[in-house]
Fold each of these.
Amino acid sequence: MFSGVFGRYQLLALLALVGAPALTGANDGFASRLVSRHNDERARFDVPPLTWDPALARSARVWADHLATSGTFQHAPENDAAPEGENLWAGTPGRFTPEAMVDAWAREQRFFRVGHFPANSTTGRVADVGHYTQLMWRATHSVGCALAHGRRQDVLVCRYSKAGNYEGDVPF
C-alpha cells in the first residue's frame, strides 16, 4: 500500500517503530477488542477468526499518523509487491469505542449480497460494502490496526493479510 509514496514515509515508519506507541500486541486492550469485534462478526457466518499481526499494526500506524497529521482521509497507495487490505474509519475524538469503529464497517452488511466481488452490493456501489467484504474476506487471516488522534478527528486504520476484495472472488 505504500508504493510510489513509501519513500516519503520511511522516516515516519522508523519513528513509529522506535518511539511512537502503537497497538502492537493482542494483549493490548484496544487491540484485543478490535480483533474480538472482527471475529464476532466473522463467526456469525462461520468465517475463520483473525489473529493480531504486529507488523500489520506498525504498517497501519504509519498511515494513521499521516492521515491524522495531514487532516486527509484516503486509502494508502497500493503495494503490489506485498498487498495488504485496508479499512479506514474516522470520528469525533474520544467518542467511539473500538467496537463502534468496527461496527461502522459491519453495518455495511445490510447492503451485501452473496456473489462475486465487486457485484456484492444491493445498491450497485461497491463502496457501500467494501469495508464489510474486507472484514469478512475468508482468505484473510490476520489484522493489525492503529488509532491516531488528529485535531479534528480520530483515525483508525486496519490492515489485513491476505488482502481481500479481489475482483471475481467470492468474499465468504
Amino acid sequence: MAKPQRISLKSARRLALTAQGFSGAQQAPGKSTRWQALSKVIDNLNLLQIDSVNVLSRSHYLPLFSRLGSYDKAVLDKHTLAAKNRRCFEYWAHEASILPYRYQPLLRWRMDDARNGTGIYKGLVDFAAEKSEVIARTLEKVRAEGPLRPRDFGQPAVRSGEWWGWNDNKTALEYLFWTGDVTTARRDGFERLYDVPERVFPDDTHAAPSPDRADAIRELARHSARALGISTETDIRDYFRLPVADARQAVADLVESGELHTVEVRGWNKPGYIWHEAKSARSFERATLLSPFDPLVWNRERAERLFNFRYRIEIYTPAPKRQFGYYVLPVLIGEQLSGRLCMKADRQAGTLRVNAAWHEDGIDPGAASEAIAPALHDMSRWLGLERVEIAGRGNMSESLKSAFKN
C-alpha cells in the first residue's frame, strides 16, 4: 500500500477554506439578492444550523453574510421559512437545521431510529413510553387542523421538567418532529407551526423512496467530506452527527471508491482525508465575521486543529466567569482566525455594539482592526443599524476604535 501524501497545515487550511466558500468575492453592498446566489452557498454547506439566540442575528442568516456580504434576508426567508415557494425543510442534521429537500429521504433512518428509541434524547424516549396517548392525540389534531402552534393546543407552558416551557403537547410535537410524523409548515416570527409532511413537502420529496440505511449514511458522509474539503473521520461524522460505526464504514467505502484520499497533515494525530475534487485557492483576502454555529468553527476541536484557535461559546457561562463575552464571533482575516468580537445588535438604539474585541497571539491588532472595520460597517448596514460603537474591553478594542476614526 502506498504511503499517504503528507501536506502542511497551511495547505490543509486552504483546502478547508476553499471548500467552505471563503475564496470567492463578496457581493457589493446594495446589490439585489438572487435566490440562486443564496442557494449556491446552502448547497455548498449542505445546511444552515438554526439557533434561537437573537442577540445579534439568528444564526442561520450569518453563514451567508460571512460568504456573500450584505444580502436581503427576506429572500432567504421566502425560500426557507415561508409557507409557499420553499426549497428547504427543517430537521435534525448537525443540530436543528435548514436543508434542501433532497436531504429528506437521506435522513429517514434517523426518523426510524427515533421511533425505535435510539439517537434521540432520553427524555423524549421516556415521554413516548409513558404518554403514547398524548402523542397520538397531538398527531390527530395536527392532521385535522394543522398547521398549528404549540399554544393552539390550549395547554399553558410550564417551568418544570427537562425542557423549560415545554408542556405535554409541545413535548409530543417535538417527539413527532424527530420521528418525521410532523414537520415545520412555516415560521411566524421564529415560532414553528407544525403540520404533517404530506401537506408541506413537494410531491416528489414525499413520494421519494427511502434509501437503504447504509447507502443514506454513505451519501451524507460524501456530502460532508465535500463540504469540508479536508477532514478526519470524526469531522465527517460530526457534520451530520452520524453514528460512529456507520460513519466509519462510510468513510472506508469512500476511500475504497477513490472519492476520499488518505493524507497525513503535519501536526495532526489522526489520519486526514481529502475530497477527490477538493481545490485550493491561491489567496484569501477576505475579512469577515463568523457565527458561533458556522460550519467552519462549529466543531471546536477541528477549529483548534486547523487554526490553533480555541473557541467555546459562553452564552450559558455565568457572566463573571466569561473569558471573552456573551455572544462572540470569530474573526476570519485571510487564512487565519485572527480574533474574536463580542457583539450585540442594539435595535432600539440603532447601534451595532462591539462589547469586547480580542486579537489572537501573534496578530498585529492595528492591521487586524483595519481589515475587519469594513466588515463591521457592512454588518451594521445589513442589520439595519445606523452606527457601530466599540467598547473598551479586550486587547484589540483601542486599535479597533482607531480604525473607525480613520
Amino acid sequence: MVTVSTSTRAYHHGDLRPALVNAALALVAEADELSLRAVARRVGVSATAVYRHFPDKDALLTAIAKAGLAQLGAAQHAAYDAAGGGAAGFNATGVAYVRFALANPALFRLIYAQPLDHAMASGVGGDDDDAMTFLLANAAALAPGGVDTRVFALQAWSVAHGLAMLMLDGAVPVDESMIARVVDAHAMLGTGA
C-alpha cells in the first residue's frame, strides 16, 4: 500500500489562489513576515506553486489589497443596513471605515499603498472596489443640490480616511464617540443641516 504524506496532499490544493490570498491576509494581520515563501509555507505548498498564481510580490499585494477592499465594503454595507440606510446609513459607513482601519491597521495601510484604481478619478466604481462603488452611490443619493457628487464623495472619504490615519498614527486618541461625532458633523455640514 502506498501512503501519501501530508505535505504531498497539501501541495495538491483544490483552490490555491484564494488560499494564498487568505494566508497572506493572515500574515498581514499578524504583522508577520510577508513574502511569497512565507505564504507558501502557511498554505503548505512549494514556493514555485505560488508563482503560478502570482508572478511577484506586488501581484500578491494587489490581490491582498483587493481582498481588503472587499472586507471593507462588506463592513460598510453591514453598517449602512444596520443604521437603516439614508443619511444615517451614510454616516455609519464612515464610522465603519474608521473602525475597519483601527481593527486592521496593516491591511488598511496596505490597501492604500497599492496602486489600485479607487474609482475616484473616473467617477464610477468597479467590481474590484465595492467600497468606492458604494460610496459613490450613496453620495449620488445624498449630495446637496448643486454639489458635484464626486466632490461630496471625496469630502466624506477624506474625513473618514483622515480621521483613521490620525488615529492610527497616534496624533488623535482613539475614541469611539469622537469617530461618530466627526463623521456626523461632516455629514451635517455637507447636507446643510
Amino acid sequence: MVRRTRAEAEETRVSLLATARRVFAEQGYAQVSMDDLTRQAGLTRGALYHHFGDKKGLLAAVVLQIDQEMEARLQDISESATSPWEGFRARCHAHLQMALEPEYQRIVLRDAKAVLGDIGDNQSQCIATMARLIDSMIRNGIIDETDPEALALLIFGSLSETSAWIADEGGSEARLRRATCALDILLRGIPNTAQPQPAG
C-alpha cells in the first residue's frame, strides 16, 4: 500500500510539473492562475500545495528541471567535441543559442528572473560544472594557471546576462549574432598562447 501511495504521489508531482511547464511556456507565469493550472492537470490545489508549497515553488521546480536538461545538453556538446577547449567553446556558444528557444526564453530568462530573482542553486550547479572543466584544462596546460571558480563565475555571469539581453527582444537573432561575435573575442584571450587558437 505504501509503495502504491508513493508511486501515485510521484505521478501527481510529474503531472503538475508537465502541466505547469506547458502553460508557463504558452501563457507566461503571471497569466496562469493556480485554479486553471490544477484544473488542466486534473488535480486539486491541495496537491500543488503538498508538492511545491505554492505557485512560486512550482515555477522553481520547473526551472530546475529545464536547467538540468540544459546542463545535460551542454555536457553532450562538451564530450562530443574534438578537444577539451573546442568543447568548452562550443558549450558557451550553445548557452547563448538557447536564448532563442521559446520555452527556455520565457520561463527561465524572463519569468524566473522576474519572480525568483537569483536562482542560486541552479546557477551554482552550472558554475561548478564549468569550474571543473576549466580546472581540467588548467591541469593539462590548455589554460594558464588561475582560479577555476573565479573564471567560471566570470564566464557564466557573462553568458547569463547576455542570454537575458537576447531574450529581451523576444529572442532576437540579430542580438545573438552580435553576442556570438563578442563571445569569440572574449574566449580568444583565455587559452594558453602556446595552444592552437580555435577556428572562427
